[in-house]
Amino acid sequence: MKKSDKPINSSRRKFLKGMSSGIVGAYAITPNLKIENLPKEISDSIEGKIKLTIKVNGDKISKSVKPNTTLAEFIREDLKLTGTKIVCNHGECGSCTVLMNGEAVYSCHMLALDADGSEIITVEGLLKDDELHSVQQSFIDKDGLQCGFCTPGQIMSAYALLKNNSKPTDEEIKNGMSGNLCRCGAYPKIFDSVKDAVSKKIWLLEE
Ligand code: FES
Ligand code: FES
Question: Are 98 and 156 in contact (CB under 8 A)?
Fold first, then answer.
């Protein structure tokens, strides 16, 4: 028997009939009814959104997101934290790097819902009392940027590297930063910036 030939039991038929007449009725009464004017639970369920609870830069946030929203889109569009950049959107360039539970991740390459319950730090979260983090300051002092588009991701990778290894060798710096591409080719100065950060005492966000 084809799916469409199956008998619909009477309570299901009644339910579907009720639903469709309810929606048609609502539109008949208010023809300009817009999804954004509906109560949040109803509009979320129509759009298929799912609730997510996450800590971002120390703030606990609960929001509903579409299942196909990436973590990078969530950070930029829902939270308006636009320091995190989307460049390739394919997990290749590292511009969207953020920390998730202390580890550097490509936020364009994972779903926001997969970060449910985790702790995220973006480049904005490195600030302490409005003062730049020493890694951020090193990128300024050593001119570690040209257009600056890759810079937030570079800084987050540098922070993740130094957090786990406060005295990396030159080779370890190159390896640690190898997941971040710079289309301006500012690599020598990016390397100098990380070396400069190594020479300073970096503060850890957990301190
Ligand atoms: S934008 Fe995410 S890796 Fe390139
Ligand atoms: S500074 Fe322009 S992409 Fe790196």
Answer: yes
Q: Which amino acid is at 55?
A: K
Q: How many helices (H) does the chain have, and how many strands (E)?
A: 7, 5
- Residues 173-187 have pLDDT tens digits of 999 999 999 999 999
Q: How far is the CA of 149 from the centre of ligand 2 (A)?
A: 5
Q: Give the contacts of 121 (CB within 8 A, at least 6 positions apart).
A: 56, 57, 98, 99, 156, 205
Atom of ligand 2 nearest to the CA of 145: 1
Backbone angles phi, psi at 131, to 5 degrees: -100, 140
Contact 183, 149 (CB under 8 A): yes
Indicate if ligand 1 lies below 6 Å from the C-beta of 97: no
Confidence (pTM): 0.81
Tokens 């609730």 correspond to 51
Count CB neighbours of 204 within 10 A: 11
